[in-house]
Amino acid sequence: MKKSATEEHLGRTALEEMSKDGEFKRTPSVFRDWVQKGGKFEPEAGRYHLYVSLACPWACRCVAALHMKGLQDVIGLSVTHPTWQRTRPDNAQDEHTGWTFRSPGDPPLSSSTGFGSFGCEDCIPDTLNDTKFVRDLYQLANDTGGKYSVPVLWDKKERTIVNNESSDILRMFTSEFNDLAKNPELNLYPEHLRKQIDEVNEWVYPYINNGVYRCGFATSQEAYDKAFKELFDALDKAEGILSKQRYLAGDQLTEADVRLFMTLIRFDEVYVVYFKTNKRFIHQYPNLCNYTRDLYQTPGVAASVNIRHIKTHYFTSHPRLNYYAIIPGGTGDSWWEQPHDRDRFASKQ
What we know:
Order of helices and strands: EHEEEHEEHHHHHHH
Strand order of the largest sheet: 2-1-5-6
Oligomer: single chain
Number of strands: 6
Distance between the termini: 46 Å
Structural class: alpha+beta
């Protein structure tokens, strides 16, 4: 049953997930059901719909897996506008800003502070539930968490959110839809590499994937300095590993690579400036640079990369960090499209 406006929780964003010492503390996802044979949520063609932003690194893990596995005709897709909007503009007490749906031909949007003009190219509206905001999906699913994030995996049959945790959805796309996938042989979480993958994820997530946010959202020098050191120590560690082998877990592409890639592809264009991670660019690391090129040029991955959406979102959605929503020009050098040297390592696809 849909909640009334008076019953609905006031929304919050990641910028409000801060500790007393100024450190960013990301909260866990709320919806954690699983698509599997014999369960409540059976893997069926046309039953599920994925809601994403092409700016969000977490959501784009799922977009990459969707295309890599060949599930585009099995699972539907909606893509938000990159610039956060007021999700309850008629409620003066609710200042939440978040993801909104638009169609490519719609008029441009401004930031929530009224600055700029940002087009709707590459957006895909919610033609399934006809919602205007991702927040509306959570309300339809009787959410109690109050954080309206992407990705969202929606079940048309039960009319609810199955899962909003990107790491779960990534694994479901890897294994649970193989009977329907065009590339069922691709396994991003193979049994013989799970120990290595889990070990990599244990340090890549807190120090790199989330580490850039811990730098950018820090509200004390101490919290920033700690996150900054941990981030670049972890990047050095990854650089060292990739000097000896093609992928993070060995000679086979896995989910660990997809997860790291989503941070690396955003690093030079956004994080160095916006999140103050300015010790070194990714293109200045010989192995990380070529590794990023290698991943980007892997079939299916490029479909998850939209640099215009990425830059527009970060620089126009957080007034606390960039009030006037000015987007830096950058070099215009798409270095990730250039040839890579990773073929020098043996690999197993």
